[in-house]
Structure formats: C-alpha cells, structure tokens
Amino acid sequence: MVQAEGDQRNAGAGYRAALGAFLPSLTITSSAARSNVSVIDRTTGIQVPPQYSYTSSLSASLDLFTGFRRLANRGAAAATQNAADAGYVNQQFQVTLQTKQAFYNALATEELVRVAEAQVKRTQQELQISVDKLRAGSATRSDSLRSAVDVGNARLALLQAQANLAFAQATLGRQVGVDQPVRAVPDTALPTVPDTATLRAEVVARAPAVRQADAQARAAGAQVWSARSQYFPSLTVSYGDNRQGTASPSWERFVGGGYPETYSWRFGLSWTLFNGFAREQQQTSAAVAHDVAQSKADDTRRAVNAQLTQQLAALETAFAQVDIAQANVAATTEDMRVQQERYRVGAATILDLLTSQANLTQAQVSLVQARFNYVIARATLEALVGRAL
Predict the structure, then answer these.
(1) In this structure, which CATH number among 1.20.1600.10, 3.10.180.10, 2.40.30.30, 1.10.1670.10 belongs to the domain 67-233+278-385?
(2) Taking all residues of the chain, what is their mean pLDDT, rounded to a whole number?
C-alpha cells in the first residue's frame, strides 16, 4: 500500500510537471563582488580604491511551440495518473484479500483446534468404554490397546493444531501491523452468496486491473505523439534583465533606476533536420511500447474474464460444499452415537467404532475447510471486481 501511494504521488507530481511545461521558467540571481585591485575612474582619472559591486538579474523563457510535445506529455501524464489511481484501488483490494485470507485462516485453524479437542474427548471416552468392557470380560485387550493408540494420535493432532493456530495468529498480527499474535473473532453467520447476474459486464469494463492496463496503454500511445514532435520545429522566447552598480543595494536602486539596466529579448527557432536516424529509433521504440501495452491491456481484459468464470464456479461450488459438509457432519455424528451404543452392548467391534470416529473427525474438518473455501472464494471475487459484494 505504501508503494501504491508512492506511485500515486509520483504520478500526480508528473502531471503537475506536464502542466508546468506550458508556463514560463523564471530565474533570479544576485551577487556581490569585491577585488583588491584599484581601478581608475574614467571620468575623473582618479584612482578609486577597491569597493563592492552589486549585480542582480532576472531571466525568463517560454516555449511557444514544441511540435505538440507538451500536449502529448500532458496526455501521457494524465493517463499515468489514472493508471496509478487504478493500481492503488487494485492494490487495496489485493491487500484486503491477503488480510482476509490470514483472518479466515486463523478462524479455520481455531475451529480445527476445537475439532481436535473434541476428538481427544471422544477417544478418551472410547478408551474408558473399552477398559470397562475389558474388566467385565466382554472385550479383548486389543480393544483397549487400539483405543489407547487412538487417544495418542488424537493428542498429537491436537498439538499440531495448536501449533498451527499460534502461527496463523502471528501471521494475522503481521498482516495488520501488530507486533504480537492477533485472535480472529468470527461473525455469527456466513455471508450470503452475492448476486452475480450482471457482474461480468462490470468486471470486464471496470475491474481495477483492466482500468490500470487501459490507462497504461493510453500513456504509451501519448508517448508515440511525443516522439513525433521531434519532426516539428520548436519556437522559444526569452527575456533577460540585468542591473549592476557599486552603491549599497536597496529596493529603490533596483527598481527606481539607481543601477544601470540592460535587458534583452530573444526569439529562437530550432528545427532538427537530421540527427542520424535517432528520431526514427525513438519513434519506433515508442510505437513498439504502445503495441505491447495495448496487447497487455487486451490480454488483461481476457484474463479477468477467465478469472471471473473461475471464481464464480469456485464460489458456487464452495457454497454447495458447505451444505454437503453440514449434512455429512450430522450423519457421521448420528453414526458415531449409534456405533458407541452398539459397541457398548457388544453388537459392534472396536474397528467399527474407530472407523466411525475417524469419519466424524474428517467430516468436521471438511466442514471447516468448506467454510474457509467459501469465504476465500467470495473475497477473491471482490478483489477481482474491485468493490464489496
């Protein structure tokens, strides 16, 4: 964002400089000099001791005609400023997307920690059930050993999830400019699916990436006209005013004629007739740069259109996955409850119970991932469009 703001400031300064080329340039100089050599007064013939001499001058110059170069440069500067503005908007949404990714990743990782904690509790309950059945003589020692292994694996998964959460919160803190981990607080509900009926025409025409590429192409086109200006003559006018004297300087002497004044007007015409094909080389380079910029603008428009198709499909798929994952969690939760009762009464084996446990954990993880995919797909679509949906 700092770089994008800097590009805006540079582009604004460039545009002001392009406008300033239509204004005259002014220079004021002043000096005081003293020599240790005596001089002879030409009027009296008397030797005059060394003294100070004071000089002031004013000069101004203005380009009257530069072969339309200033107009072309102004157009290029304006297009560059538009490109910088579009680049700032594009960068703003890209940074927003990165922040949302870090934010939602911290949320998802925290949910995975809760899933791992629930898994540890379930495996501990299973271990207690298998131990009770072993003492009652209705289960084998293998059941309790498998349950103990399952508890160990669940605790390892919990430790890994907690480590991932610490890293995700530290990454979020870095992203928002805080020197410590930041905990993400979720909303109460997922954002709704946006209306995308008229989105394609808007994206192809007004997406920040498209606007930036189009502005860069216009700037390159203006540079072509700037290069062509070398084939025209240039006309300049300048004015110089010089005042010099030995009396102590004062405003009255400068303005009221106390110092002798000399001034001059100059009109200049310059026309390069041949410079070893340097103009042709610059003209060709500018034309090539314009062709490349225009091709990039066209390709950017097609790329944005393709990305829009991809993101719309990803958004619809992710939203459908959330519903499916929620149904899977409900089904595996009920299956887990049934298998626990069946194992408790001896109608199911420990493998049936462990399989059901693994299915429930995977369903919960899939639900977290589905929600994460949906919000990221929505944020990516907003970054592509360049506005909130």
Answers:
(1) 1.20.1600.10
(2) 90
